[in-house]
Amino acid sequence: MTGYSQSREALDMDVTKVGRPVSLVRKPAVYVQRRVAVLLAFLFVSATLATGLLVYFNSSQAEGTSKKTLDLTVSTPLQETGVGGVVPQETGVGGGGVVPQETGVGGGGVVLQETGVGAVVVPQDTGVGGGVVPQETGVGGGGVVLQETGVGGVVLQETGVGGVVLQETGVGGVVLQETGVGGGVVLQETGVGGVVLQETGVGGVVLQETGVGDGVVLQETGVGGVVLQETGVGGVVLQETGVGGVVLQETGVGGVVPQETGVGGVVPQETGVGGVVVPQETGVGGVVPQETGVGGVVLQETGVGGVVVPQETGVGDGVVLQETGVGGVVVLQEKGVGGVVVPQETGVGGVVVPPSREEVNIRLPRALKPLHYMVKLQPFINGNFSIQGFVQVRMVALQATSNLTLHIADIITKNDTIKLVPVDDPEGPGIGITQNLYDNERQFYIALLETELVEGKQYVLSMQFTGYLNDQLKGFYRSTYKDQDGNDRWIAVSQFEPTDARRAFPCFDEPSMKAEFEIYLARESSMNAISNMPKVESFPVEGQEGWMWDHFNTSVPMSTYLVAFVVSDFVHMDSQDNDHVLFRVWSRESAIDQASYALQTGPEVLTFFENYFSIPFPLPKQDMIAIPDFSAGAMENWGLITYRETDMLLNPVASGASSMEFVTVVVAHELAHQWFGNLVTPKWWTDIWLNEGFATYVGTLGVNHIGPTWQSMEQFVSGDLQDVLALDCLQSSHPISVPVGHPDEINQIFDSISYSKGASIIRMMSNFLTEATFRKGLTNYLSNLAYGNAEQDDLWQFLSEAGHEEATLPADLTVKMVMDTWTLQMGYPVVKVVRNGTLATLTQERFLLIKNENWTDSHDYKWWIPLTYTTQENPNFESTPPDVWMKDSESQIMISSLPSQEHWVIFNVQETGFYRVNYDDDNWNLLIKQLNTNHTLIHVVNRAQIIDDALDLAQAGQLSYNTALNVNVYLRNETEYVPWESALSNLEYLEMMFTRSAGYGALKSYLLAILTPLYDSVGFEDNLNDPLLEQYKRVEALSWACNLDYQDCVHNSVSLFQQWMDNPANRSIISPNLMTTVCCTAIAAGGEEEWNFAWNQYLTSNVGAEKNKLLVALGCSREIWILSRYLDMSFTEDSGIRKQDAHTVFGSVARNDVGRDLAWNYVREEWEKISNYFGSFTTLGDLVKTVAYEFNTKQEKYELELFREEHAGELETAKRAVDQAIERTTNNIAWMENYYDVIVLWLHDNGYHKMIKHF
Ligand SMILES: [Zn+2]
User: Fold this and answer.
1) What pTM does this model have?
2) Active-site residue among 291, 670, 714, 801?
3) Which pLDDT belongs to residue 69?
4) What are the beta bridge partners of residue 845?
């Protein structure tokens, strides 16, 4: 996987929901008209009902019940107490008849009344009785119920008693749905009847259970909706197009109401809209109220359609759930909008196992090993977002067991379809299941078996299930985009890593449980489906016109997290550049021309890796697809790589130079995973760094192959390596190899420690073993473990063998001895070099940016360090195998035979080792002198190293800032990009800390003094044909110069932006490289007009990279009210800002000196709104960290602490982030106290304070 950016924070921020389209919740006017017709028809029917009637029922959907005549008898009058008849409101013991409201003992009957007028059913409105009546008062009772105006309904049914109930307030029963908005959902229990019905435009889903069935459901107009009926006895259902009505029935007897168009349901609704259902019994039964804890419950909320409110707590948004012991289906409704139902986590039916309070082992038992899955999925993308699924998995019993355990989440199983049979007796009775259990905490489905499975034998488990295309960007989810005509289009796409395959189908969802996968996807015939393997055939879905099944070839053995599906209306382009792999790139139609670069680069990188690893790509095809809503940057699914659009699509005119390199980096990273991760997979997530570290490092080799002039290997140092050195020097860091269990923990280690530190120590290995030896070991590792799993020890073993064979590793040293010190310990060392004549004393110590006095970690941090060095007398920066090993048992060693002390030495040649180097003052001064006389004598990577080490050592208090700032003075002569990148990313900290202080003017003078020569050399005019790094230097120089108010830069930006405003359609006026800087500068200098112009350009842009740049620039305004409006928009649905981009907008405002306090106030004032908007507190925590990034005063620290205190107990997952923000602020305050005066003095002594006027 590629994270959206280096940091885990950014990754989190992108896991956000997709907004619900308006079309889901609007009901067409024609629908209401039809409902009125139903009502009128009802009035006719209800008059008949009151005296009993025969109803002819004709359903094409309920087999075996068509043309059936049913006798519907209703005990009439109503009754106070007693039996039978209808009972009105009161206390109601009544059996038979109708049962009223109250106590719920009541049996039969049907309706109750509001008005007390009796009759069996009385429609509310008219008071004429007959039909069913809606309930008013809330205690719920029997009868049928229906809903009040304007509200949705939900229903569900209960055991044993049948009937239907529905409720307004309190207790549920059956429900039905109604006007206005959302559909409802219904679902039915086993064995017992129930009823449901559904509604509105979007269709809900209904489904019926097995057994005795009866309930019924039906569906309404338009789209989705489904009704279905079950076997057995009972009820009936029927469906009407366009009109709906509902009926349902008890077994054998019940009345039924058929429905034909225009004839209306049985019960009308108040407002003339909803149809209603009337249950009917013969004499007995009738309706059952809720009562006694047996019943399922559902109930309705007011106001909006289709909301379900959980009964128990009265809080939630919409969960309904079933009591235990009965059965369980769970439904829950999305908040406030209605229309769709979402299955609850615990949707398995059967007993729900209560979560334990202790630490649990979340690993699957090892008794069963999956061999082959057949998965069939039919996602209703343009319907109600349900997924009809079937899975069949062949397994071998590795040991005898009487329970079958696998993963499941957000899925409703159809328990009566679950079958387990021995492979050698597929037609036999199978293995009985005595109980279905669900372990919510571990996301386990557990079947307790009647008889033990026999060790060594194979079995086949199969089941049907219902899933759901969620909007959470994980599992099998839905994504939306607008086509060229502005219409909403929907697609379904999967994202399973690390633990979300279980949301798409029941499976053994652990990386070592490899198996073959045979996938079938059903799609509407206008769409297409792709998966890991090529399609082998397509054929119609039986009984569903317009639907096709696509059947895909059986895969190679692989982990569940690499399975992938996409169903879309996307288009593709093909390449045969690789002679045995068909390469295809996919995107929405209007963006396909932006996929050309990926199509050209992909096969080239794939071929490069085949040669590099000496192992051919094993699949016949490789698809790459750009997804409009995607949580990570990209995902390496085997044979079907999914990307965020900006990570795969490239518009040469609008995207800019860095986008081209970025796309190359991501493509190379994902293709590297096809070997590292897909072919050989970590046994468990603890070793995920093997995947991500290798994909990052080897991916860089692929980028270097594509762009040999891009200095990718050098950029790796100033980017990945130095970035993660800056993180790994905190006490809160963690080892690369870290035990993880719960999915939250697993997700957390997809961070830059795994990616960048992993890649950095792999680079170190490649250098101490030598490249050729390293490759030999890798190829052996991959080919020996192909289609299997590995731990880091396996890699160490193959590399040691290669190192000893090639004699690049001392015979008494193993890779494991060295590398365990780098992967099992967090942090890294600083090596201090103190010279004395030709001798040098070297010590190693863990490098910590801040030493916390309360630190209790007593671990003795020591590493095996491959030491390399070169000297002024004989400078050689090309040799990177170690000159000396410093052992993990040594805190000090001596090196002799160095040149005399008048000449410098440099350790860590090309910064191939993952450590910092500090020197005595004399050596530092020799280095400063060399840099100022002829810096090119020192290798460009070591110049970057010296800058980075000096500034970080100074920040940690291990080197004086005078020395560090003196090192950087030479930069005015530096023309290479890589040392500049190191310098600017470090100097940014000084700039941030000074920005609101009196010394800022002097610091600006210093920064501009070293920057202006670079600015002048690159010039303001951009040229997309310049070498890539020349373009990068220009981007950096202009960005800094404009930010420091360098007038030439500001004037040019404002003027260029004005030209664009004069020619809005001409998108080539501002080079994409400079888009952020120019727009940010012009918007900061301008007002509302400039802002609005840029906003409109954002809205109309079709290029993701350009949109992102404009979003950032819009946060540069200096008008408080504009920033305030912008913040509001970023947390509002349908404002034009995607939810995934809200953090970008917030960050832009928070980084703006004018906007930061505003952003901080916004978080504090609106934290509830923000967490509701994202559905979690994670994002809120990230926002606090973002806004507090530059905090460096005691007042700000106090405000943070107050915030934490005020919301103690509410912050949940945001707490850690708030703690981190407080820690960072504490450190910034300490930094200001320790170094601000020192630096101001240095600036003064070096004349920078006088130069303010000059600039
Ligand atoms: Zn990756």
Assistant:
1) 0.73
2) 670
3) 25
4) 830
